[in-house]
Write a structure and sequence with these properties.
Blueprint lengths: L13 E7 L3 H6 L3 H10 L8 E6 L2 E10 L1 H6 L7 H4 L3 E5 L5 H14 L14 E3 L7 H19 L7 H15 L2 E5 L1 H7 L1 H7 L9 E7 L5 E6 L1 E5 L8 H4 L7 H15 L5 E11 L11 E3 L5 E3 L7 H13 L5 E6 L3 H7 L4 E5 L2 H13 L4 E3 L17 E2 L8 H10 L6 E5 L3 E2 L9 E2 L4 H11 L3
Parallel strand pairs: 1-3, 1-4, 4-5, 8-10, 8-13, 9-10, 12-16, 13-17, 14-15
Antiparallel strand pairs: 2-3, 6-7, 7-10, 11-12, 14-17, 18-19
Helix pairs in contact: 5-6, 6-11, 7-11, 8-9, 9-12, 12-15, 14-16
Organism: Rubellimicrobium aerolatum
Pfam families: Peptidase_M17, Peptidase_M17_N_1
GO molecular function: aminopeptidase activity
Length: 460
């Protein structure tokens, strides 16, 4: 897909006038009478994201962009970015100032709204381009939009074209572009050193064999380790999912897509930190060598895990990767994973729930989410639920019975393997329908909030 970008600052551009609904009459009174009459004939009410294109003597003279009210804008994220698909082709420039936060959301949403997944059929993007509004950090917004395009492309690619090997190739491409170091563990070394990752992925065909991807970048600064769930397709294993639940399971590597996208943004921004990216890449397949309900597995950390559901495989592969992270230098470790349906039941698809014991980090994440149109919500590591993940014959249970507090028990399971300073995102990574800035399909969640929080979290 084309790289998301703004129109050049010196490009010939038509004026785009933002109009709040309560200022519409004042705006119309300042227009030539014929144009004002045209706008009224269109029924333009200046609702958030509504567009009115005004004719001039030689074609289009300008356009009005509805701002609605603060209340209506709050109900629709990237509301003003709907203009990207509603305006004619060409470059457009705001000719009246917006509040800086509103201008940033409009500009970022405009870039994100231009994303289309065109690998398998022509998917033309909107042709209206925006000249970056004054006062925003345009290069940063372009880097964020490019990161999200990477995440969406990876999530949207079906499993026949994106298995563990292809996920490794995406990581290697990123490492090559930014001069990062990369190592990939497979075969006997994986079996012996990362037994949970190997066990979950061992039933897949040889060309889709499991692996652990380990990428590092940066020579100085605080340590940040990102761990992403890379289950390239999840059948559920022997606890087979129903067909309807498998339809979107190409996105079960969404956590891996997120950490690669975040790594791309960090490296493009040249943040002063040391970055490590760990991706356990597997396919949870059904076959003669599939792991079974009732098996007891030993992890890299030495803790034993009783398997009560082979469809709770994500926490297993993450556990071994987190154990490796815990053996390294302390810093901040963050997991991204499409881990539980319980998280969707708790907060729905639009919010990215996260878990951390670090109150300052939690506050910075919440603020970053508000500032960057990336809503997140803190859920608790609720200590009394620890007993739920402790079965009778092993150290841990990968799928406690009862179905209650599933997102929390999964997070508690991961915390048993993680370094001390730890944050976990249980993401959906999917937009169920087209929305402003968010075409149907793969979606990036929590990344902009975390990027905004890093100066506080590390600090930089």
């Amino acid at each position: 897909m084309p790289i998301p970008s703004f129109a050049p600052a010196d490009a010939p551009a038509l004026p785009l006038t933002p109009v709040a609904s309560d200022a519409l009459e004042a705006t119309l009174s300042a227009l030539p009478p014929a144009q004002a009459a045209w706008v009224r004939a269109l029924g333009f009410k200046a609702a958030a994201g509504e567009v009115a294109v005004l004719p001039g003597e030689d074609g289009i003279a300008r356009a009005l962009l509805g701002r609605g009210t603060p209340a209506t804008r709050a109900r629709t994220r990237f509301a003003l970015a709907q203009a990207a698909a509603r305006l004619p082709e060409g470059a457009w420039r705001l000719d009246a100032p917006l509040d800086p936060a509103e201008a940033r959301e409009l500009a970022l949403g405009w870039l994100l709204d231009g994303y289309r997944f065109g690998r398998y059929k022509d998917a033309p993007a909107p042709r209206a381009r925006l000249v970056a509004p004054e006062g925003i950090d345009a290069p940063r917004l372009e880097i964020l939009a490019q990161a999200e395009a990477l995440a969406r492309d990876l999530v949207n690619t079906p499993a026949n074209d994106l298995g563990p090997a292809e996920l490794e190739a995406a990581a290697r491409d990123l490492a090559t572009r930014f001069g990062a170091r990369i190592e990939v563990m497979t075969g006997e070394a994986l079996r012996d050193g990362f037994p949970l990752i190997h066990t979950v992925g061992r039933a897949a065909m040889p060309h889709r064999a499991p692996r652990l991807i380990d990428m590092a970048w940066g020579e100085a600064g605080p340590q940040l380790t990102l761990v992403g769930k890379g289950v390239c397709f999840d059948t559920g294993g022997l606890d087979l999912k129903p067909s309807a639940s498998m339809l979107t399971m190409k996105k079960d590597m969404g956590g891996a897509a997120h950490v690669l996208a975040l790594a791309q943004a960090i490296m493009a921004l040249a943040l002063p930190l040391r970055l490590r990216v760990l991706i356990p890449a597997v396919e949870n397949a059904v076959g003669p060598d599939a792991f079974r309900p009732g098996d007891v597995l030993r992890s890299r950390k030495g803790l034993t895990v009783e398997i009560n559901n082979t469809d709770a495989e994500g926490r297993l592969v993450l556990a071994d990767a987190l154990a490796l992270a815990a053996e390294g230098e302390p810093g901040l470790t963050v997991t991204f994973a499409t881990l539980t349906g319980a998280a969707r039941v708790a907060v729905g698809p639009d919010l990215a729930p996260f878990f951390t014991d670090d109150d300052a980090l939690a506050q910075a994440l919440a603020q970053g989410g508000r500032d960057w149109a990336d809503p997140v919500w803190r859920l608790p590591f609720h200590e009394p639920y620890e007993a739920l993940i402790e079965p009778a014959i092993a150290d841990l249970d990968n799928a406690p019975s009862g179905g209650m507090a599933g997102a929390i028990t999964a997070a508690l399971f991961l915390r048993r393997f993680a370094p001390t300073r730890y944050c976990h995102f249980d993401i959906f990574a999917w937009s169920q329908s087209n929305a402003p800035g968010r075409t149907k399909g793969g979606l990036m969640q929590g990344v902009r909030a975390l990027l905004a929080a890093l100066p506080e979290a590390l600090p930089l």
